[in-house]
Amino acid sequence: MSGPLLAAKFDAANTHLALAVQALDTHQVKVQALVVTQDLLNTLFSLSKGQKISALEWISGSQLAVGLTNGQILVYSPAQNSITNELEGVSSAAITDLHYSQITSTVWSSDAEGHFCEWDTLRFALLQRFALSDMLDATEAVSKLATVIHQNEPHLLVGTHNVYLVNILEKSIVKTFPAHVQPIIALTPVTSDSDLFLTAAEGDRFINVYSIAKNATRAVLVAQLSVTQIALGECGDLSLVTAITETGTLEVFQNPLSAEAPPQESLKKRRKQLASSVRSKHADASIKYSRPTDEIRNPDDDFMRVNAVSLTESVLHTTWMDNATISRFDAVPWHNEGAFAFAGTVVIRKSKQEIKPTSHAERGHDVAAPQLYNERHTVVTEGSAFQNDLVNSDDDDDDETLAERLEKLSGGKKRVSALGKKKLQKHTAGTLTVVLSQALRNNDHSLLETVLANRDPAVVQNTISRLEASLAVVLLDRLAERITRQTQRFDQMNFWLKWIIIVHGGVLSSMPNLSNKLASLHAVLTKKATTLPRLLELQGRLNMIEQQSALKKEILNGSATQNDYDDADTDVEYVEEIDDAVEAGLIGSEDEDDDIDMDAADDYEEEEEEEEEEAEEARNLPGNDDEGLSDVETAVVNNDVYEED
Amino acid sequence: MADFSNRWTKAMVTGGNPVAFPGMRALPAVASADGKHSIVCLSHQLRVYFLQTRQCIRTVDVDLSQAVAVHLDPGSENQVVAFTRNEVIYVNWREKLENAVVAKQNLTPPIEDLQTVFKTLLTTYFAISEADSQIKIHAIDRETATSTVLYGLAGVRAYATSADGHKLAVVLDNGDACLYDISAAVAEQTCVPDHALLAASIEATSETWAGQYKTVTCMAVSNSGVVAIGTSAGIINMLYGGSLTGKPQRTLRWHIDPVHSLCFSADEIYLVSGGNEKVLVFWHLELDRTQFLPRLAGPIDCISVDIHRPDHYSVALRVSETSHEILTISAVDLISRLSVSPVRPCYGTPVRRAVETARKKHQQQKMDLRSVRHNITAPVAVHPTSKHLYFANGAAVQAYDVVRGEQAFVQHAVPQISTGRVRSERKVEDPEVSALAFSADGQWMATFDAMPTLDFDNLMLRNDVSYALKFWRWAESSWLLALKIVDPHGTSVEVGAIVTLGDHSFTTIDTRGGIRVWKPRANHVGSLATSAASAGAQNMVTQTVWTLRRASAPANTVAPVAACYSSDRSLLAVAHGSVVRVHDPELLHAIDFVLPAMDLPIEALFATGTHLIIVSLRKLVLFDLVAGCETGLAAQVSAPGIGNLVAVDSHRQLIAVAINQFSTEPEFALRGKILLLRPDSLAPVFSTEHSLAIASITYTPSGFMFVDTDSRVGVIAPEIRQDLTGSAEDDLASQMSKMLVNAQATANVLFARSGEDSMRTESADATDKWTSHKAIDVAVLQPIFANIEGVSLDSLFERVVRAVQ
What we know:
The complex is a heterodimer of chains A (645) and B (805).
Chain A: E1 5-10, E2 16-23, E3 26-33, E4 42-46, E5 53-59, E6 63-68, E7 73-77, E8 82-87, E9 95-101, E10 106-111, E11 115-120, E12 126-131, H1 132-135, E13 144-150, E14 153-159, E15 163-167, E16 172-177, E17 184-189, E18 196-201, E19 206-211, E20 216-222, E21 227-235, E22 238-245, E23 250-254, H2 267-272, H3 274-277, E24 279-282, E25 285-290, H4 299-302, E26 308-311, E27 315-322, E28 326-333, E29 335-336, E30 339-340, E31 344-349, E32 361-362, E33 365-366, E34 379-382, H5 402-424, H6 433-441, H7 445-452, H8 457-466, H9 469-485, H10 490-510, H11 514-517, H12 519-530, H13 532-566, H14 576-584, H15 590-620, H16 631-644
Parallel strand pairs in A: 20-24, 25-31
Antiparallel strand pairs in A: 1-2, 2-3, 3-4, 5-6, 6-7, 7-8, 9-10, 10-11, 11-12, 13-14, 14-15, 15-16, 17-18, 18-19, 19-20, 21-22, 22-23, 23-25, 26-27, 27-28, 29-30, 32-33
Helix pairs in contact in A: 6-7, 8-10, 9-10, 9-12
Chain B: E1 8-12, E2 29-31, E3 37-42, E4 45-50, E5 55-61, E6 69-72, E7 79-83, E8 87-92, E9 101-106, E10 114-120, E11 124-131, E12 134-141, E13 147-154, E14 156-161, E15 167-172, E16 177-181, H1 195-204, E17 207-209, E18 216-221, E19 226-231, E20 235-240, E21 249-253, E22 259-264, E23 270-275, E24 280-284, E25 289-293, E26 300-304, E27 312-318, E28 324-330, E29 336-340, H2 351-365, E30 381-382, E31 389-393, E32 396-401, E33 406-412, E34 432-438, E35 444-452, E36 465-475, E37 478-486, E38 495-500, E39 506-510, E40 515-522, H3 524-532, E41 544-552, E42 561-565, E43 572-576, E44 579-583, E45 590-591, E46 602-608, E47 611-616, E48 619-624, E49 629-636, E50 646-649, E51 654-663, E52 669-677, E53 686-690, E54 694-700, E55 703-708, E56 713-718, H4 732-751, H5 755-766, H6 778-785, H7 793-804
Antiparallel strand pairs in B: 1-56, 2-3, 3-4, 4-5, 6-7, 7-8, 8-9, 10-11, 11-12, 12-13, 14-15, 15-16, 16-17, 18-19, 19-20, 20-21, 22-23, 23-24, 24-25, 26-27, 27-28, 28-29, 30-31, 31-32, 32-33, 34-35, 35-36, 36-37, 38-39, 39-40, 40-41, 42-43, 43-44, 44-45, 46-47, 47-48, 48-49, 50-51, 51-52, 52-53, ...
Main location (chain B): nucleus
Protein name (chain B): NET1-associated nuclear protein 1
InterPro entries (chain B): Quinoprotein_ADH-like_sf (IPR011047), WD40/YVTN_repeat-like_dom_sf (IPR015943), WD40_rpt (IPR001680), WDR75 (IPR053826)
């Protein structure tokens, strides 16, 4: 196991793979179907915080028992993607192993304190519970469980670092097999021969084959590296053990069970020379998964860790991860017409699977939707920006004449000296020259935007005056483009334009080909200038209105004075404060009042229209139908409106 | 040259608009029984789409323009059954049969005002007809296609049936809403039911809500008896039937324009509504929560949930006056799974209106029917490499892939209110793309658009129009706007035509006679920056900018514009009003050369060889530029928009002219005719008639493409070219044998069960039949093989042949 993967297990039918995955601070249970085309099951379930997975076991085909470090056992249903049951542990010690027994059709669990529990898989009720310490003097942590038939009765194989054969009914240890130094991590009974079982221990290279009847090791399989998982497959006379080593390669042992031990010797001698007399066997083949040679980009591609292995009668199932998250599967037949399929070092090359979901959205945009208009990255110019290529050929930007280069060289020197001078000067905080020149040189629009956002006249003036003349041309061009794009920003740009022309006007006018370079600015300004007649027109109208209002005021004043004469005792209210305020200019004087009156009249007309509209709306509302209007008419009106659109 | 005319054939390549069923009560699309396929009914074609890949995997050509309802055949999931007013048509959509139309039955008696077929059972179909606000429920027997009236209801303003067909909700003329349980009527019929008894049993189930629903625009009823009534004011009234305690009801308010369509989701948790706002509204009926799906392509006219695919919504979006786009949206992520859109040309006048006015005038004053008064044509452009047809319609440009018979994409060319218009917003004028051209290599597109100033406030600039010329670069699979030129010919001068020379340049001609030439160059802004700042040379901007290179001064005339380059690119002919002038393309000077003046404005100019074709509103004249005289081909044609109805094949020296004429038999209609002419004679090389008026015709290397007024695209292509060096005069025997070989080949292709067979036949004949040596453009062929998962072999073959043609 490596990286975020905690455990991986194939189900009994080898159709699904269950994975326990560490995802940030939570543990997740993932179930994936091996053949996607047959079964689309692919679920992911996050356990709540603090629940840590310690064991994983398939109960029958459709449910998964998940053992947690807090002693709980959850029953997870991939089809519903939910926890269907919870087996409340009697103790809160971590579950060390879960075992679903085909023999008893129950789930066995072991915890760190050495207790065993048997659970009913239908009602998920506790059937019995006992502890290893009841039967044994010493306390040993149970790390693995298995069930076997021994003398026609179901027995439990308990793996600590030794293996104990426990009679379930009598709750007593029948036999003890001293096995490994380290805790056992794999305990696999042989299905065809209930006398035999295999063990592997943590950090141990040896896989032991035990015979229960003989109460001794029958064979030792020696792997190259320490073993993390083993699987056993049998087909007639053939049998195969595959082991995943700690690096993730597969080692294959052929017929580990059938071959008899070497020639029999006297019992005494054999006991004495137990270690030497036991047949030890090295791996017959090793299997490595790798990418095709042309796809190897890094060491990870060269070698893919096998996460889980399972053997059926004919097929070896393996799984590894693509991109550290997607499980990929492979099924290889392990025997072929009575002969084993693997020999020596086998490298199976699997190219990375292209994950190509049908794209329903393109760059976050629905493919069926129309592509919307976007002018964000577009150059915007004015139509009259005329660039005559008779005067200025295309290539002259690229090919400079010798004279120009020389000029530039000398200019560059000048610039350097100028810069040196500048350094001596005191830098004031009130300029943006450095930022601005950087923005212009690097074509950085957002940076330029931040500079242009500044409106402080002093800053603008200082910035421009310190700007290089050559950059001023560029800046002018940028400004022209911005104005063309958003006409309403002219106010803001105005300042900058003005100061560039004031400060750099002399240099600009001496530049050759200026009309070409500043064509777009010229076009923009010309266009702006063309609005003058219209503004004048507007001014004329305003003048007229002003005069009219003045006239009106005159007439009104006249009538008011007449009125005053007519009834002498009008209530003239004098409020001192208001009068003072008028004099102070806080409140508008009388002629402004007149303007307001006119506006009010206009508003009134508009209001009337609005009212009409509202009335029309009201007619459409069903509630108002009773108020006189014929419904047919309403419908007709509505229909008309509807068709017109 | 005896059989010369036989060497051109007319073929329709698209199926037209999706059928609009009366009142848009149902979508012209059904899902297959497993929900994996969508069968969309176009007016002349059934298209079968595989939903997962969005691919059309089969097409069946069948005339469904009169259909009022389409259902999956309950007897066989490989068939669909379509109903017209007097026929029941069974079409096999899955298998390749000699005749996909499996059976046609005559409805006896025909149901004149058939509106919809709302339920199909194994033995009986149930239909509703509506006439004079009276609805009738009919039963149609599957075996004999005899129809019987089961139940009638008078004074009905609107009605709806539930998805299972057991509930009928109506709004009566007096504004009352009624709910009936009609499950007694819509059951498998064993014997002829007693009408009175049936009516009584249905009446007994009725529930009534007193009248306030006169403004109903649409309604829906769920299987459990919840009635939703959409009104013209945009309010949706919910009436809960089947309740014992009172008559619970509520209102849903969001729409401000009339609700056009309502639909309950399959689990009846959601009500989905749509209208002019172009927003699909999901009302969660229990939680009182609403969800919105905005920015759809058009106003929503119909929403439906297919029983075979309950997790998808299908909607019909009105994309033009007569055509709809069918969009299927997944209910899970609200992302489209399929969209079927027809060609959307921008017709000058909808043909229906043109025909209607002509008929009225004809009846009143015996109007002269030889000419068409309205401009029913539409402009179209062909992309030079991908061969897509481009239609500028309003603010958008639609690209249509003719080979696949589907819309490729729609690109908005002008900023526009993407949501629907309601109420006062309708006054807002839409920007409009008026001209469109491509560079010869297909990498650049130039569009010209006019954007009226928004007339919200009564300002002095309310009549101002801002024009923009835009240059688009083709990047991978979409157009990127590279450059926008504001007012390309100065303020308020409109560009009338964009023409392109063979090289990289566009020429624009404005309505006042100004000509401007635009050529690309590297972004001068960027290059200036780099030359100025020698240190930042690596930041070279590779953006291309099109700049104005030549301009000729405008005159004062304002007139329609037409222009073309001569085929050797040495002359630029420009027509303003009724006058044609010839210009030098380099310096844009007018060349002193006398061309015949027309009496009416010139609509289009074309050049082929040494001939200049001048198309005016009245006349079609060919002028021989070398001989300096008119040729024998001169005709009086009278049709506004004739410029769109002429196309020139300069390679074969052929001119295609489409003519639309009114015909009074059998019914008053516009019919089209296409003539292929040589430059020197009036006798057509080939002529073909079309049942509908032609809206535009254009030239592509594979033949002349035309679009008719029902948005169908057809092609007039040269037939299999024979070796011309062979015997020119075939005797009867050889002709017959040739026909036999042809027929056999067709039959082989048709009947070949396995792909290998058909391929072998094709390759065997290739040596003698498909002799023509033609360069095939990879750009056309490549997209055919992209994403072909699930496409059946014969439709793939069809596509390849169409592309190769």
